[in-house]
User: Fold these one by one.
Assistant:
Number 1:
Amino acid sequence: MRTIFIIYLFCLTLAGSSVAAQNQNKEATESIIKTKRSRFVVGIRSGYSHMLASADAGIKDAISAGATQQGAENYYDKLKKGFHFSADAHYMIVDFVGAGVKYSLFSSSSDIDMTAKASSSYSILPPPSYLYYCIGYDERMYVNFVAPSFVFRQRIGKTARISEKIAVGYAGYRSEVRAKADLLPTQKYSNMLAEGGNIALNPEVMFEVFPTKWLSVGLSAGYFNFTVKKMKLKAQSPGSTSLDIIETEIKLEKDKYETLSRIDLSLGLNFHF
């Protein structure tokens, strides 16, 4: 009887080991399936941006052109604040490292009114004589960015994660300015366009939580490093009967580089496939 009992216990042990092994294999299989389902991550984000460069030189130029101190400061303060939108897609090579592509768009706008001074041939006074007139500027600024991107991520518990991303690619700058001068009845709106581009660097950190397995919600902070060294300029100069288009390309001096670096704060969604 004892021998039979020992054999019975041994058989139960083997059966238990077999069940445990099957459970482990099932868990491993489910883990592999889950990993495969999360190989692709697509994210969209939007939020507030603030440019970091000093506007002292621009403020000085605006005052020289006829703007008030307060008007010039308000103009550049508003222009430095904007909004951004970004989208990216990554393929996770392993659970914590992925590669993909990123696109982002930054935009801001501002306007200013000033009183400008110009020499006049219409004055009845002897030279030098000047004509004062009102002029207003409405500027809209855009920065587009496309780049390869890499992501590194670490889990925090079961429902949270921290992701670090870095993208290096090409950024294009575009500034559209519309000016109206009430100098002569023949003068109309003048459109001015400035464009430039360069390599930009965009690191970002995101904290995300998972309300479901396929969706995460995150808060992110990023830094966008971008400087324009050459520009193409176009202007429509009012004439007596028509608008003549003036085009030129300039290489900026080092102390006059257009620095467009900024901080991005955003809220976003990530979709895991």
Number 2:
Amino acid sequence: MASKMIWSAILIASPAIAASSVTPKPNARIGSVQKPYISAGSYRWLDDNKGDPSGTVIVNATISANQRGVNLERESSNITIRDSTISGVKPQPNTLYPAGVYAEHGQSLLIERTTIRDWTTVPNEKYRQGDCIDAEWGFVGLTLRDVVLSGCTDGGYDGKARDVLLDRVKSTGNKKNYRFWYSMVSATSIDSINPSQIHIETNTRTDGTHGMGAGSLTAKRVTFKSGGKQPLLSLGPNAFVKIDECVIAVPAGTPFVRYHDGGSASNVKLMLGKSCGRTAHGNAINTHVNVR
């Protein structure tokens, strides 16, 4: 009898486990501190093509999916993801454009105290897709607070969205930890750790198809840390980057800035605080502040 009572207690305390996607509904509540939510193996876990998730709050959820964890294409609004993990199941075909969170159209998405990781594509001879967060031009109002983005084969944060705040965000082990496209991004503190190619990249578009202009970043503090010599900044034409304070721990000879696709020292605006030091050859100078 005692063993049956123990087994019953375990069942009651266990989190709810779902093997498939959820049906989006307005003002839904998914997961809680008392009742964690787990879903494994769906194609897209939350997809607003199947219903309106506006007002949904997701808390204490562990989600793994194949193509996308959260997919927002239909003008959804006021969604919160908190204290959760959203991870990719396995490398996907490049044509599927996998992403932990894909925000194409809509407004007001808050993600906090959450890890988004391992959104990858299989190796190929072309550019490998796979973003932890892919925020497109049609989305307005995105806040990331105490978020970790890791292990994605393209961008950690790959953003074209408008009205974006990065508040204590760490991007680690992605190809390009941060990619800013023709949109204004504000940051309190962001960390870039061990990208395989670039710490921070800005991109410029002039065709007007999906917005136009140059990527920009205004940050109070940026931490750069890596074991390789990946450039800290890679800037396209007309980029605007302002960093008040840098924390730098990289190998000697690491380029601070490189330019691409027509970017140059004459057509970008770069404003760096005193701790963002460069040698006469343009290489980064490590700071004496402990890297978190």
Number 3:
Amino acid sequence: MRFKNTLFKRSLRKIANKLKTEKSKVVLKTILLTFILSYATALICAKTGIIEIEWQLLFVPAIVVLQIIIIVTAFKDRYKKI
């Protein structure tokens, strides 16, 4: 049991170290900002009655932004000059 626990802690540390980079911080902030903006827009539309919005769809813009960031990063890495 102790061996599994230390192995789990090491794997969590590796993941945490990967998330501490500047690039990942920018990506996380961008996704958070996108979610907040979509939530605010939906809240304003719901209060004023302009548009009926399904609340389950609020995650879609954040997921689209994440996909765009992943694709752009992949292209940058693929066509990087040596």
Number 4:
Amino acid sequence: MDIIKRNFFCLLRTGALNDFTTLEPMSPYKWRLVMGMAQQYQVEGAVLKGVKSHQYDRGIDFPNELFKLADFTQGEDQAEAWNLSNRWLNKRLRQIRMKEPCSSNPSMETIGLLNLLVKGTREMMKGASMVSHTVALGQYLRRQNDRINKEKLAAWVGKTHLQGMVQLQMRMLVEFLDFQAEELPLPLPMRKRDIKRIAQQLNQPITGKEGDLHFWQDNNGLVRNNTQALRRNLQRALRLLPYASLETLSYFSHRFILSLNELEE
């Protein structure tokens, strides 16, 4: 990780999680690149808070532009019930959400975390950047970690076959927000191949759109498609397949069928 990204994540940790770390001196040009990353990944509020917390650090000279960042960070709605593409798995997910409030010892904080993890899975499928989601996930765990029922969460993740996708999201917290193993709600096996996939996902620009896989008919009646978008979707599907095979196949099959349905009869 280069110095620009190291300082970017240091500011994120300070602003979003109140973890104070040492910044490395950079030129005004590189600090402006940090500003651009904050805007691109929609974490301006967290980075601005970090800048204000470090503005008097010795050897750190922020350009004035950094103090003009919008005081806003794109967050996640923990209450929103995001769905899975696989009907069988989504049925299980709905049952979990319906039964938990009526159980003898309900844990709605664990349901909120499950919703966030499902949202993160969907975002990875779309190819969106995971920076703002990782920040929101880290904030949620710092606030609610003592109330998370780890046994229930492990059982729910197993029922929905999302163990691999959850481990990827946990690994993002460790690698980029410096979370410790004891802060994670589930054990995290170390797999070197995860790091490359995480770096690819975090470095994605905010262009992941579910509608970018598009087929159409030309004037001669021939079916055409956006070959670059198709290639990106296939590459992403192959990267994620080892982590959630059922959901990955269902999601991309669904996207493919929807795109074909757009063709004029």
